[in-house]
Write a structure and sequence with these properties.
This is V-type proton ATPase subunit F. The chain is of the alpha/beta class. It has 5 helices and 4 strands, in the order E-H-E-H-E-H-H-E-H. The protein has a single domain, classed as 3-Layer(aba) Sandwich (Rossmann fold). Helices cover 34% and strands 18% of the residues. Helix 1 links the parallel strand 1 and strand 2.
Length: 119
């Protein structure tokens, strides 16, 4: 990775992932593993979690974008990740709007500040 930045990984439905791929985030690592997963109805929970964990272990990934509805399915794995990199960010999808009360990063950030700090 000398001289290159970190990648963004994406886990989500076809429309979400396609949008990011059209924006240029798609890459293959030296083992020809992609930095994205299109989750369809037949995609198993084990495959989603395995892909998420593989993204966490890759040194070339700096940010993981995951649809919030998928993050809910593997919440235990998302909550267990505590390192600063890769950063895990929950995003909305076409069928599921964003719910800030479920976002693990936002919940952690709220614990750092009092209401008076935010005024």
């Amino acid at each position: 990775m000398s001289g290159r930045g970190k990648l963004i990984a994406v886990l989500g439905d076809e429309d979400t992932v396609t949008g990011f791929l059209l924006g240029g985030v798609g890459e293959l690592d030296k083992h020809r593993k992609p930095n994205f997963l299109v989750v369809e109805k037949e995609t198993s929970l084990a495959e989603i979690e395995e892909t998420f964990r593989s993204f966490l272990s890759r040194e070339d990934i700096g940010i993981i974008l995951i649809s919030q509805c998928l993050a809910e399915l593997i919440r235990h794995a998302v909550e267990a990740h505590s390192r600063p990199l890769p950063a895990v960010l929950e995003i909305p999808s076409k069928e599921h709007p964003y719910d800030p009360t479920k976002d693990s990063v936002l919940r952690r950030a709220r614990g750092l500040f009092t209401p008076d700090d935010l005024r």
